[in-house]
Amino acid sequence: MKQSNLGDRDIQLIIGNLLRYGVWTALTVATLGGIIYLFRHDREFVNYQTFVEHDDNIFDVIKHMLNGVFQGYGHSIILLGVMLLFLTPILRLIFSLVAFFIEKDYLYVGITLLVIGIICFSVFFGFAH
Amino acid sequence: MQYYQTIWLSLAQNHTLMTVLTFTLILLLGAYAAGFIGSLSGLGGGVVIIPLLTTVLHVDIHYAIGAALVSVIATSSGSAAAYVKEGITNMRLGMFLEIATTAGAIGGALMSTIAPTSFIAVLFGCTLIFSSINSLRKKQEHAVKTSSKLAILLKLPSTYPEGKTRIAYGTKNVIGGFSMMGLAGMLSGLLGIGSGAFKVIAMDNIMKIPFKVSTTTSNFMMGVTATASAVIYLQKGYIEPVICMPAVIGVLLGAMTGARILIKANPRKLRLFFAVIIIMLALNMVYNGVVGNI
């Protein structure tokens, strides 16, 4: 179970790369969206002094975002970048799950599933309130 | 016509008038400074961006928290990538403790939707003061040889690289560390921060894990912890893309510059200097929270 076995070392490299490329992809998309947004809205005024609370379902947020992306809205493309950033740790979790499964470490398969479960719970709990 | 209406409305409500372009440029520069300071002080760029957004740019604290959390995910994933490859991070330990941090983060994120903004501002300021003072204490590398039964059962003891050899370390007090992680997660969800200081205390002071492993594993855990609250933030409307974009890019670039300087300069003196700056920002947050400006 120590790092000396080859499996753990490979997993470290893959997870390391996954995190790195995930972040760069997300940022590239967000920058692109930002540039498009600035070209169209640069002279508008910002006002973020008052917070408008939403109560959206995450699936509606994603659907709305994808619609915007296909119509080329900068705002939605930045959000896509942010979503890709959120997806990076989730991909890391899914990859860990597979890796622990291959290593036949069922205790950690269970622990990883529990963490994924908690995150899913937040998806369903977030808009129930 | 709409132009003048916006101007009039803004003036009527005593708002600071700023165009998207000005706002983006100021935020990009500010976020770069935040990432730089955050990296040199060891606190992370996310925490410095909150006072910048709320007190300088007059952004509501909820949007500030959302943008900070996005920056935390970017910087922590970026640096975690390197540590994981070097084999310093204890991935099993991180995975196990993420049960506590994600659960705590969801609790914290839900609390942030009902807590008064002044309370969030004061709590944020206090957390920041504690973290920056904590970052100044002396760290010595220690490795306990023995482990508790629960730690062995969970396969937490491991090794870390030191030069060409690997040093074995034990793990103690799993339940104590786990509870502290719950608190760290809650603060992360409530304030949009990585709460690295609390994570390191849980591993280094309570579980007796070597400092190097504690800091890198803390970094590794931040992404997943932050994602748990990010989902709630998204649904509640905390994530405003126009604020997030310059914030995350600035913080990441600033953190990269900071990391480069840390290799060359004397970290001890730099840390002290930036800790003082951060404490002043934090006191400013507490003051504004108390008088109700935020």
TrEMBL record, chain A:
Pfam families linked: DUF1634
Record field: transmembrane: 21-39, 73-94, 106-128
Xref: InterPro entries: DUF1634
Keywords from the named record: Membrane, Transmembrane, Transmembrane helix
Domain of life assignment: Bacteria
Protein name as it appears in the record: DUF1634 domain-containing protein
Origin species: Olivibacter ginsenosidimutans
Source lineage: Bacteria, Pseudomonadati, Bacteroidota, Sphingobacteriia, Sphingobacteriales
TrEMBL record, chain B:
Homology family: Belongs to the 4-toluene sulfonate uptake permease (TSUP) (TC 2.A.102) family.
The keyword Secreted is assigned to this record: no
Key words, A-Z: Cell membrane, Membrane, Transmembrane, Transmembrane helix, Transport
Keyword check for Membrane: yes
Subcellular location: Cell membrane
Transmembrane segments: 20-41, 61-84, 105-130, 178-201, 213-233, 239-263, 270-290
Pfam families: TauE
InterPro entries attached to this UniProt entry: TM_pro_TauE-like, TSUP
UniProt membrane topology term: Multi-pass membrane protein
Protein name: Probable membrane transporter protein
Main location: membrane
